[in-house]
Amino acid sequence: MSKMDRRTFVRSSVAAGAALSVTGSGCAPAPPNDAASEAGGGLPGSIPPFELNELSIGDLQEAMESGRHTCRSITELYLGRIEALNVAGPRLRAVLETNPDAFEVAEALDRERAENGPRGPLHGIPILLKDNIDTADGMTTTAGSTALAGSIAPSDAFVAAGLRAAGALLLGKANMSEWAGWKSFERGVSGWSGRGWDAGRGGFCRNPYVLDRQPGGSSSGSGVGAAANLAAAAIGSETDGSIVGPSSQNCLVGIKPTIGLASRAGVIPIAHSQDSTGPMARSVRDAAIILGAMTGVDPRDPLTAPSDGRFLTDYTTALDASGLRGARIGVARAYTGFDERVEALFEDALDAMRAGGATVVDPIELPSELRFGNEHEMEVLYHEFKADLDAYLSSLGPTAPIKSLAELIEYNDANVELELSLFGQELLTQSQARGPLTDQVYVDALRNSHRLSRTEGIDRTMDQHELDAIVAPTGGVPIIIDPLGASSGRGYGCSTPSAMAGYPNMTVPMGFVSDLPIGLSLCGRAWSETTLIRIAYAFEQMTAHRRAPEFLMSARVT
Asked: In sequence order, what are the beta bridge partners of 129?
């Protein structure tokens, strides 16, 4: 297909499938007389009231304990919400598929509760999983790609198994930036997957706060699903910014744990030295509850071995409304100054932390090389993606739709309309060109990555200033969905130091620019999740910035 043919194809496909009208310079909401209007059009007035709106995990447990609800009735309500908002109404495209056994699982959990009581705080709680987390059930795992259509994993990912063991109901698979964004940086569009975009489920995921805005990536559907109350919470994954970014842009709390705190076994990878999974929820408490079900040593993931003796199964013990008192917070000014509106929110956040009893050390310095896309990080990701993806595909057995990165590239080339109409696959081809993990180029890149981010970065800075956490704005204002315009780039973000180091990072709502959410990031040393949760909880309780989305067609000018 020629470049012009692709452009024509995209115009017709996006207009019909994504309920967006595409122009040469960007995307605008579809006109009132199109199919979207007939289905509700995404207008705020078309959103039906929802009984479970903004209910916490604790609220849902209380409803089940009192008999007002059962897991079955809660599941039915969330599935109805998905039906009303995901393909119809505002067409969020956040959920690629729902669990065909959801009611059967819910009824079994209800029987167990009646006979033995709940297993714990997640018993009967519906959770969405990003579509790169394996489940050995009736749901597929595809990383958003048609190349893995129909692929059902032979076993649960460690994270999925942990959630099931805690009594959670795995409600569905969330949309994502295809291959977790490791396909192309050509246009900087987050939240697009080839899977299901012709059926109204995949394609462009839309920000529920303002529908013509990106939801962030790559855990796009997880962010939108949790924010729009399509489930109690969601699980995302991150290599660099993919949990904290969409959590910020959807007014959520997101936790990217220390590498090794939660096993990556059964998660479609980018790079084992940076990949992690974590909760995305509407409150710090809910995120802490979920994190405790995800931890543990797993022989399938050797990097979990150092977590022995360090991980907790209950992170709610870190919740302390006075948790800012006596904390020392360093301000990473290198990640500020890009937008005066965001800067104003950040200064208010620093004032709130001071008012809560924290000492704010401003500024602190991190190595200037710690920006996304630096040569050391990119070399690590290129090499590890090839090795790790080939290993994952091998784990699917002889019936896997594709069996190697090389076959994936060939598949995309043969299916341009499905996979290459919007942007190319240069990240895949450049990864395929790399050698094995014994190559000196890779060995040197990984050593330099850890030197800059750990020894000369986070560890040195925190030791020098005796810090408990480092803070910065999580990112910028969500940008307009623009599949045919020039690259909007990755935007601003502070996730790279923690990503390269393999250290924890979490984000908590910091406020709004007009109608668009902005998050505050807190990062720290390895295994410091309890410290970050304590500080984030105290900040959340003081400021209460979380609010539900209004599903606006465009941002109001204020």
From this structure: 173, 235
Count of domains for the chain? 1
Return the beta strands (E) in 287-368 as ranges: 328-332, 359-364
- What residues contact residue 455 under an 8 Å CB cut-off, 6+ apart? none
What is the rounded distance in angstroms from the CA atom of residue 481 to the CA atom of residue 206? 8
Q: What is the pLDDT of residues 65-74, one digit of tens each?
A: 999 999 999 9
pLDDT tens-digit map of 97-144: 999 999 999 999 999 999 999 999 999 999 999 999 999 999 999 999
pLDDT digits 0-9 by tens, 349-380: 999 999 999 999 999 999 999 988 899 999 99
Residue 300: CATH number of its domain: 3.90.1300.10
Give the separation between CA 510 and CA 107, rounded to whole angstroms.
39
By three-state DSSP, how is residue 278 classified? strand
The letter for the amino acid at 171 is L
* Owning domain of residue 244: 3-323+371-448+473-543
> 381 CB contacts (<8 Å, ≥6 apart)?
182, 239, 270, 271, 274, 431
SS (H, E, C) 256-295: ECCCCCCCCCCECCCCCCCCEEEEEECCHHHHHHHHHCCC
Rounded CA separation 546/223 (Å) = 14
E strand segments, 141-248 = 169-174, 192-193, 203-204, 233-238
Kindly report the backbone phi and psi dihedral angles of residue 511, in degrees, each rounded to the nearest multiple of 5, phi listed first.
Answer: 140, -165
Q: What share of the chain is helix, strand, coil (3-state, %, to 5)?
A: 40, 15, 45
For 446, phi and psi rounded to 5 degrees? -65, -40
User: Which sign, positive or negative, has the C-alpha torsion 43, 44, 50, 52?
Assistant: positive
Which of the four pLDDT bands, split at 50, 70 and 90, describes residue 227?
A: very high
Hey, what's the torsion of the CAs at 193, 197, 203, 206, to 10 degrees?
-140
Separation of alpha carbons 319 and 317, rounded Å = 6
Give the residue from 215, 293, 270, 269 showing the smallest Cα distance to 247: 215
SS3 212: coil
**Any domain includes 356:** no
H helices of 129-256, in order, are: 158-165, 220-227, 244-249
In a domain, 210, yes or no: yes
Q: Is residue 328 part of a domain?
A: no
What six digits make up the tokens of 239? 């290599």
The tokens describing 399, both together, are: 């019936």
Mapped onto helix, strand or coil, the DSSP state of residue 205 is coil
DSSP at 258 = P
How far from the centroid of its chain's Cα atoms is residue 515's Cα? 20
DSSP string, 402-459: --SHHHHHHHHHH-HHHHTSS---HHHHHHHTS--TTSHHHHHHHHHHHIIIIIIIIH
Residue 538 placed within a domain? yes
> Which residues are known to be catalytic?
130, 218, 242
